[in-house]
Backbone:
């Protein structure tokens, strides 16, 4: 079992490595994408500088706290889009019958399908997280926590995308639902939870788990708490397992479209 | 002009097949507005407070209008389409047709977003009324003026995005330039009105495209005056001319560099 997991991990890493090599064929574009993504993210600093010039705190967040919130959200987004880009267009893969080529491989279908491509600009998101950490206060503890939370956040975003995109096994036109679900997570994750009240706040820690992947991590970065750290890690394990379960359930219903395409 | 209207009509007819997507897509707009509603409710201690010349209701209506302009446009999709046309060589199929590529792209895209725009305007008006309980005080003439500036703002935005997409003639991927352009429009003109920035920045912004593609129609909607309308309308005509000349210049220079290998 462990051997199989190790082999699968190796294959996924190789797949990502070749995708990166493919993107590096045009180094100028690769670098431009990364640099401009960092600038793109940085533009939102203006928004918060303006807001903090009017009010001193937003839901208990100061400017630095909001910056690290943005940094973590960007990192989670970057991690998911860089390593698992195809998870966000999985419904297209399913609907167009492109899963066929992964079914014949002696490896995990889901992992093979979602690691075939990388998004170079997402590296800019990951780097932006570390740049913001420098502004916030770089030390070994914060570096490790941000890296762990970037990864858990990325895995949760990917898993939610896989679950919503897997609805394509049962229903049509679910790509719009998946896109909406993803934007729901991203939009809420860039604003402090203190500005939301009542039922909405409750939703952010349950149905839309932004609280668990972004707000709790920020609290842990500000003040370390092992229980809160465990909550995020356990939730990540749970949702990753759920994503595999839903996808595998759906896969049993999958039937090929006999589409003949060449994967280059 | 007839041929461009035909292109527009064809795209509208085609888009009508995907009305479901438009309605589901509105959920994304609703979420964004809901977050901004919470943000401004937090910022304003009470609804009568005035910050930088805007009450809370005016601020929310302002972002409702600017977010319609922003979301309906979906500029990323248009930029990618133009860029892919250039990179894949598809643009060559349009070069020998009896129309201008820029006109084709403009009217085609206007057709694509037409149904979406009407749907969003109606739903956003209902949503705004539910959130705030009232509409801004506008006459029929001022509503028409807001609609006119809104349409012009969309046309100018499309022209600018076509220009950015056409930069793919010179660089491999124009997407990153679009990201920065769009985020500047979003941060400097969509989330806040120009009055939220320091005086020096306000002056720069009032001469920038942000004034005509985002701020103008929204400002008229929340605080209409004929003088402001006249000013915004003239600026929009100037920017429309600039955007068209810029797109034409880049296109004409770019096609000379085009090299399509078979197909």
Residues:
């Amino acid at each position: 079992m462990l051997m199989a997991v190790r082999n699968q991990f190796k294959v996924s890493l190789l797949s990502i490595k070749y995708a990166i090599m493919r993107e590096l064929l045009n180094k100028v574009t690769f670098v431009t994408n990364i640099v401009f993504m960092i600038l793109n993210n940085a533009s939102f600093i203006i928004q918060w500088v303006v807001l903090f010039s009017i009010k001193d705190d937003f839901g208990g967040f100061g400017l630095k706290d909001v910056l690290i919130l943005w940094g973590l959200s960007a990192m989670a987004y970057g991690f998911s889009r860089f390593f698992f880009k195809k998870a966000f267009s999985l419904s297209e893969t399913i609907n167009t019958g492109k899963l066929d080529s992964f079914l014949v491989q002696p490896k995990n279908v889901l992992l093979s399908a979602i690691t075939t491509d990388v998004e170079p600009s997402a590296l800019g998101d990951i780097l932006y997280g570390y740049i913001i950490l420098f502004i916030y206060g770089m030390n070994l503890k914060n570096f490790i926590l941000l890296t762990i939370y970037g990864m858990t956040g990325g895995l949760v975003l990917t898993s939610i995308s896989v679950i919503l995109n897997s609805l394509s096994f049962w229903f049509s036109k679910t790509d719009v639902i998946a896109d909406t679900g993803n934007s729901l997570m991203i939009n809420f994750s860039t604003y402090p939870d203190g500005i939301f009240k009542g039922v909405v706040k409750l939703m952010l820690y349950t149905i839309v788990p932004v609280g668990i992947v972004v707000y709790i991590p920020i609290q842990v970065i500000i003040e370390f708490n092992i229980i809160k750290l465990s909550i995020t890690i356990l939730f990540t394990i749970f949702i990753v397992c759920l994503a595999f379960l839903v996808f595998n359930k759906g896969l049993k219903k999958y039937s090929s479209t006999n589409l003949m395409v060449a994967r280059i | 002009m007839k041929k461009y209207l035909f292109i527009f009509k064809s795209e509208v007819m085609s888009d009508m097949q995907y009305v479901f997507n438009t309605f589901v897509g509105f959920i994304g707009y609703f979420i964004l507005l809901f977050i901004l509603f919470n943000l401004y409710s937090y910022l304003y201690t009470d609804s009568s407070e005035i910050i930088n010349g805007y009450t809370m209701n005016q601020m929310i209506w302002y972002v409702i209008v600017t977010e319609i302009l922003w979301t309906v446009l979906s500029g990323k999709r248009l930029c990618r389409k133009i860029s892919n046309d250039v990179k894949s060589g598809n643009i060559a199929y349009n070069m020998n047709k009896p129309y201008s590529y820029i006109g084709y792209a403009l009217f085609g895209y206007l057709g694509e977003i037409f149904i979406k725009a009407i749907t969003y305007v109606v739903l956003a008006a209902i949503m705004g009324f539910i959130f705030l309980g009232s509409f801004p005080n506008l006459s029929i003439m001022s509503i028409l003026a807001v609609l006119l500036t809104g349409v012009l703002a969309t046309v100018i935005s499309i022209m600018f995005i076509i220009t950015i997409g056409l930069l793919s003639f010179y660089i491999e991927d124009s997407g990153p330039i679009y990201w920065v352009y769009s985020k500047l429009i979003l941060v400097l003109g969509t989330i806040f009105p120009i009055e939220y920035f320091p005086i020096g920045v306000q002056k720069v912004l009032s001469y920038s495209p942000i004034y005509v593609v985002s701020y103008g129609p929204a400002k008229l909607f929340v605080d209409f005056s004929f003088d402001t309308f006249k000013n915004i309308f003239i600026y929009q005509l100037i920017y429309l001319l600039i955007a068209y000349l810029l797109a034409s210049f880049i296109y004409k220079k770019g096609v000379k560099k085009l090299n399509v290998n078979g197909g």
Summary: The radius of gyration of chain A is 19 Å. The mean pLDDT of chain A is 89.
